[in-house]
Amino acid sequence: MPSRTRQGKPPAASLAAAKQQSAAVRPNFFLRTKLLLPRPAPELLSRPRLIERLVTNLTNPLTLVTANAGSGKTTLVADFLRTQDRQFVWYQLDHTDADAFVFLGYLTFGIQQIVPDFGKAMFAYFQEASGELAQNPERAVDVLINEVLERVEQQIVVVLDDYHHPGRTRPFTLSSTGSWPTCLTFSTS
Q: Do residues 189 and 159 lie in contact, with contact meaning Cβ atoms separated by under 8 Å?
């Protein structure tokens, strides 16, 4: 039985060790459905003009797809990816992705599905610097960018679907895409 203090609480050292062990385990679990392209709609309205604009925008580091709720942004981008012969990471965001650890972990895991050896540096950084990550998520982004430069050779389209969900505390801002390597193109809807 683990030791306890007079108040019946585990010693502080045990709590610190448990937090450290938790941080080391965290990047190993990913809900794969967050990285799956949505199913095609049964009756899909073809939008060749918008698809062509998406193709043209692949030369830009960022494409922002905006429209009213329910107008088909996600369907458009998913249809675009189905009709193109391009590697992509589809990342369905929700409120939990406001945590830099979660966001960068999923992004790394998504790229790893295309580039098998990808993520070694990033996941090692997660284990070594979990405290620093909370205070300086930009440093983790630097580690990710360096790993992309070292390991990614072909263009990958990264779709951040429902980019608005993480709210004001996004670990990744649209303005930071300017420093990303040209092999990653971001599309948000």
A: yes
- Identify which has the larger pLDDT, 97 or 6: 97
pLDDT in tens, 44-80: 788 999 999 999 998 888 888 988 888 889 999 999 9
Instruction: State how far the Cα of 112 lies from the Cα of 18, in Å rounded to an integer.
Output: 28
Amino acid identity at 154? Q
* 64 burial level (CB within 10 Å; 0-12, 13-18, 19+): middle
Q: Which fold has domain 12-188?
A: Rossmann fold (3.40.50)
Using alpha carbons, list the distances in angstroms from residue 68 to 42, 72, 73, 104, 153: 21, 9, 9, 28, 36
Residue 92 per-residue DSSP state: E
Q: Are 38 and 78 in contact (CB under 8 A)?
A: yes
- Spatial strand order in the sheet of 87-92: 62-64, 184-188, 156-161, 87-92
| Domain spans, the chain | 12-188
**pLDDT single digits (tens) 166-179:** 665 555 554 455 56
